[in-house]
Amino acid sequence: MAKEYFFIPDLLSEAAEQTAGILSRKLHEGHGVKAVLFSFAAGEELSEHTASVPASILTLKGTARWRIGEDQLTCGPGSWLHLAAGTPHSLTAQEPMTMLLLLLK
């Protein structure tokens, strides 16, 4: 029988700091959520895109500049962002940055 919970005691220990590129690692998928840990090197970008499901993002380390529609936000450690499905967004890491992405199904 599958467990009814999933536990990671230290999310940052699951992410390697990037000196180049972007690293993504799926941590969990099930119970209506997909959890992906992203690590970005300084200056790395994700071009504008959308998600087909609602998404929540928690910045764990570093800072990133987000563009959401016409708005620009700077997110740092402890910042939480929730996007409705279909919301255009992009980001640029200002420094090495780690975030947790939760795609809600």
What does this structure look like?
The protein has strands spanning 22-30, 33-40, 45-49, 55-61, 64-68, 71-75, 80-83, 89-93, 97-104. The chain is mostly beta strands and 105 residues long.
Reconstruct the topology from this structure.
Blueprint: E1 22-30, E2 33-40, E3 45-49, E4 55-61, E5 64-68, E6 71-75, E7 80-83, E8 89-93, E9 97-104
Antiparallel strand pairs: 1-2, 2-9, 3-8, 4-7, 4-9, 5-6, 5-8
Rg estimate, integer Å: 14 Å
The major pleated sheet works out as: 5 strands, antiparallel
Q: How would you sum up the global shape? A: globular
Number of helices: 0
Give the overall average pLDDT. Answer: 95
**Element-level helix/strand string:** EEEEEEEEE
Share of helical residues: under 10%
Offer a few descriptive terms.
105 residues; mainly beta; 5-stranded antiparallel beta sheet; 4-stranded antiparallel beta sheet; 0% helix
